[in-house]
Each structure stands twice: as structure tokens, then as C-alpha cells.
Amino acid sequence: MNSASASSDILIVGGSLGGLMTGLALTRHGFSVTVLERSTDTDRTGAALQVGFGLLERLTGRPQAAEIMETGVQAWQSVHRGLCAAAEGAGIAIIRNARVTQTGQNADTAWALTQDGLRFEAEVLIGADGYQSVVRRQISPERPDAVFANYLAWVGFAEESELTARFPPHLEFLESGPYLLLGFPLTAADGSAQRGRRRVGWGWYDAGHNEILRRTGAVEGSLVRHSLRPGDMPDALFDDLARLARRNWPSPWREAILECIDRRAVLGTPVVEYVPDRLVSGRMALVGDAAHVCTPMTGNGFATAASDALALVQFLDSAALATDPVTALQAYEASRLPEVRRLGQSGQRISQDFVRNARGR
What we know:
Blueprint: E1 4-13, H1 17-26, E2 33-37, E3 48-51, H2 55-60, E4 72-75, H3 76-89, E5 93-96, E6 100-105, E7 110-114, E8 119-127, H4 135-139, E9 147-159, E10 172-176, E11 179-186, E12 199-206, H5 210-215, E13 219-220, E14 223-224, H6 235-248, H7 253-262, E15 267-273, E16 280-281, E17 284-286, H8 288-291, H9 301-315, H10 318-323, H11 325-360
Parallel strand pairs: 1-2, 1-8, 2-5, 8-17
Antiparallel strand pairs: 3-4, 6-7, 7-8, 9-12, 9-15, 10-11, 11-12, 13-14, 16-17
């Protein structure tokens, strides 16, 4: 095994939104922060997020240039790009293609091992590695896995200029039979919100196509392994979705869905859930989807991850890191655990009601 390739104050496993926001928040105390991200920028995907005004300033405690990240409803990729730019500007070391296979700790340090045998050490390790979190296995070994909620979301994005329909300037939430649909306009790649230049996105919640998830291995038992990508989807499935879209969804969202189906530009995302019993163990803590996973129907996953970061930085300051980081992390857990459990349980009830109603129709 190689010797330690890096040592820092804070080691964050996972460089998605929660990990980047946490790293940015912790830089306000002058910590050196290393982020290990298993992916590269080229294979990222995601839906739309509501970005609050002044998010970066709230995270870092410093004024941030407005052009770094737009506010309002934004595509996941745009938010991720803005957070990466802010993190690099703050001196955070982001190491990509670093797949963490094991984490641990002793009395003095926490550490992570990567697939290629590198060891990274820090005073504190933060797990921000998503619903399939490796760090959660260490913190909650008795219940390490998020579970399938028994439905999925079909997701697609289209260019408004390619469509003749006129789209509203706001989010729309629609219901038809056993299905729910969230439609949302997004700014163009250059930030323009001008009608005709925007992108439009949609998320279609569906409890009637779980079999394709199991047949392709996207879901095994109660565990979600991966999303369903267009190459996994037979033409008959696209034909079925097109038929259902024509039957259930009104214009303009019907046109957006059909355009995505025609291009085979649809992602099937199994919905997962996890309500935590703990967020902390020793020098290790969880944030974001590694800590708690709620149905995207609630629309609060991104905001909750930001709240995790803002709570953590309240307790883990430079004095706490130097003297007693374990107690600081315990205070973070006491502050956040009741709220994230409440949100997670509320999300479970929403999912259960949706699946029950869908199966009853």
C-alpha cells in the first residue's frame, strides 16, 4: 500500500453538492480541506434545484461574486459548476477519480483508502458520498444502506427553442391518474431567462415500471444500484412512455416529454430513502444524502444539505478542531438529527401515500 498521499485538517469523501458546500463552509475557519470525488465532471447528471439568494455568502461568511452561481431554479450541472469554481477559489483541494473503498479512525486521526491504494488522513472526516455512502458503513454499520421507495422518476431536459409550445415562467406540479409530474423552466446555458432561449426540465413520478429496474439490475432487492440510462431501456418502454405521456400530460409539458423520448434522452432514477439513527461516530460525520435521503417530491434535499453544512461549521471551529473535535461533532449531531429525522419520516409518508394511491388506481 502507498504511504499517505495527503494530510489535511478536514477530509471530505464525496465532491457532489453536499461535500462542496460543507468544504466551503469549513474554509471560513481557515481549515485546509481535501475533497475526494470518485467521478469526473464528464459523467455528472441531475435534476433542478432551488438556489437561495446569497447561498455562497451564507456558507463562507464572505461576499461572493454574483456571477459564480445564479439564484432561483437551476440545473444541477450549473449549481455543481458554480460550487466547484467557488471551492477552487477558496483553495480546497478537489481530487477526482478517487474512489474511496474504506474509511476508519483512531484516537488522533481519521483516514480514507482509495481503490488505487492511496491513504488520506485528516483531523476530521466528513462523509458526503451520497445515498450509497461508504462512510455511512463505518458510522452506522448496523443499518448502512438507503432503500428503494418502490417508485422512480423519469427525468428529461429539452431546449425551449426546439419546441413550439409556450412554457410558463414558474414550476408546475401536475397529477394524472397514478402519476405525478414536476415541470420546470431553467435558464439557458449562458444564464439567459428569455423566453425561447431557456431549457425546460421535467420529472415524472411513476410506480408502475419497477420491473424494468429489477430486470436491468438497477434495483436488487431493496437496494438501488444505479439509475436506468437510455441504453438500458428497450424501444417498447419508450413507446409505452410516449403513449402514457399523450394520455396523461397536457401541453406544454407533453411536448417536452415527447421530444426527450424521441431523442432517447430520458433517465430513470429509482427513488431512495434513508432516515438516520446517527450522524456521527468519533472523528467522522455525515452530511447531505450520505446522512439522510428523502424523496425529491419534497424538494428540500439541496436545502437540507446546505443546512447540514451551516450547522456543522457552527460547532466545528478552529478551537474545537485543536482541542476536542469529537465533542464538536456530537454537538452537530444533537443539533441536526431531530430535524433530518422529521424530514425523512415526512418524506416516507409522502412516498407511501403515492405508491398506495398509484396501486389503488
